Every structure is written in C-alpha cells, then in structure tokens.
C-alpha cells in the first residue's frame, strides 16, 4: 500500500506541475490569441469561447505528457485558435442570417493612460495594448473585413496585422504557400479598394467626435451638416433589441435629419457621455443611468476630416462589457453640458486569464 501511495502522490505532483506549466504558457500567449481571434470574428463573446476551446485542447495535450514535445508553443496555440475560429464561423454566419438590421463588430473598450499617469505607466499601457489601439482593430476596418471570406480574413489578419510569413500561415491553415499568397493578394486588394491606408490624427478625431456628439444629441442641425461628408453613411446596430435603422442610411441630409429627429423624440431624459477609446479610436460611450446605452464611433475623410462613416451600437447584448469608469480617459461630460435636450471539460481547469467581455484581452 505504501508503494502504491507513493506512486499515486508522485503522479499527482507530476500532474499538478504539468497543469501549472500549461497554464503559464497559455497565459503568456493569451493576449496574442485574443487579438488574432477577435480580428477574425469581431465578437468578444465568440472570441472568449474560442479561447476556452483552445485552452481545453492545450491542457489535454499537456496532461497527456506531450506538452514538452512542442518546440514552439506559440505557433501551436495560434494554429489551434485560428482553426477553432474558422470552425466557429459557420455558426456565426447562421446567426447573422437572422440578425435584425446591420451587424457591427462588438465594441472593444481599450484603455489610454490618464494625463497624470507616470511615463512608466504610459509605456506599460502601450506595450499591453499595442495590438488593440491601432488601425488593425478599428471599427471601420473590421466592417470591411466582414466582406472577406473567412479564409481571406484569416490570412489578412495573420499577414497584414501580425506579420506572419506566407509559409507560416500555410502551416497554420494546412494549405500550400502559393495558395496563401493568392488569398493574401485578393484580401489586400479588396481591403485597400474599400479602405485606403489612412491614420487619422487621434487629437483631431477626438475633437471631431466631441463636436459630432454635441451636435447630434443637442439637435444642432447646422453643425451636423457642416461636419458630415456629402456621402456619409450611418450604420446602426440594435439587433432588434433597441431602436435602430434597419438599413444603413446614406447621404448628409438624410443622416443629419435622422439624427436630429432621434435626439428630439427618442432619447432618454438623462444621458451621460464618456469619451473613451473603442477599438483603438477616440469614441463616445453613452450611459443612461448606470447602464450603457450606446457606443458611437466616427470615421473621418483623409482630406478634410469630415465624418464619412458613423457606427452606432445600441444592441444591449453587445454592450454588456461596457461599464461606468472602465478604461476611461478621464474626459467625461454630461449631456446637459453639451447642448439643449430636445462540450464537457471534465476536470480540466477553466480558462486562465479570462477577461470580462469588452475588456482588452
């Protein structure tokens, strides 16, 4: 019995060590995995599900004693996550077929350092969120990526955003390098035709966003007409659970009058506007009491900084991760100050390092 007990305890210790090692490796790569999958799916909740599946696969392999044989855990985890995301795409597409109105990516709140933060804090934030505060995950680009095939999008994200070579992507997706190059070429041309590379100055975007929100919610039709590009498009995502337009609205006059009418008749009596970074861009997060009411992101013209696209997410399911004071820039203003109001997991541990939906992973 003593010998059996020693063997049992030794196996238990070995298993615990393997679990700790597997957890440490996974947590070390979790931010990368989150960024890759979110760029592929545009949904925080689906991304977290894919990461859970990736963790389970990784933990099972590690418990099987094969973890030490993986020379490149990063490549192995990315391969699992990317293919799990592609497999999930079919069910996502089925959901989209019955979705009410335009579908927009789930907003991802990203933190920017407060003005009083130390230089070290600024650098730490930059390192932690570099993949979440640039063009790669902007709302505008994610909308364009929705028009790609799942494979084209995966190749674009891996190559253009994360710098993977075509040969590395070929190994991840189980395809030839020549096939990957063709997919990359088609995806890049498709994206550039719809969204030329242009990085708006963050300060300018912040100022235009504030003016736009004040004019929209304050009922200032003249200011709206001055801010909007002639061919502006308004995308509203209420998912059938919040009042929104069932189709994109195009044209300066139509968009301005729709926003003016909505502000006059449909808004709750008390709203709080908080300016934060959403998908890397300065944006407005609107609260009604303690509950998130809407996330508003604007995209600007490269030549004159007119508003060319407005992305308005009001679907409460997509706002569950948005909280008062979360990731704020310290710049908050009440509406009153901005104008008149007219599979079974067994005993495998749960996913380590899981963040709340809406938080940067």
TrEMBL record:
Keywords: Sigma factor, Transcription, Transcription regulation
Record Pfam families: Sigma70_r2 (PF04542), Sigma70_r4_2 (PF08281)
PANTHER family, sorted: ECF RNA POLYMERASE SIGMA FACTOR SIGJ, SIGMA 19 FACTOR
Chain spans, region Disordered: 319-361
Domain called RNA polymerase sigma factor 70 region 4 type: residue spans: 139-190
Highest taxon of source: Bacteria
Quaternary structure and partners: Interacts transiently with the RNA polymerase catalytic core formed by RpoA, RpoB, RpoC and RpoZ (2 alpha, 1 beta, 1 beta' and 1 omega subunit) to form the RNA polymerase holoenzyme that can initiate transcription.
The UniProt record lists the keyword Transcription: yes
Protein name per Swiss-Prot or TrEMBL: RNA polymerase sigma factor SigJ
Keyword Acyltransferase part of the UniProt annotation: no
Family membership noted in the UniProt record: Belongs to the sigma-70 factor family. ECF subfamily.
Residues annotated as domain RNA polymerase sigma-70 region: 29-88
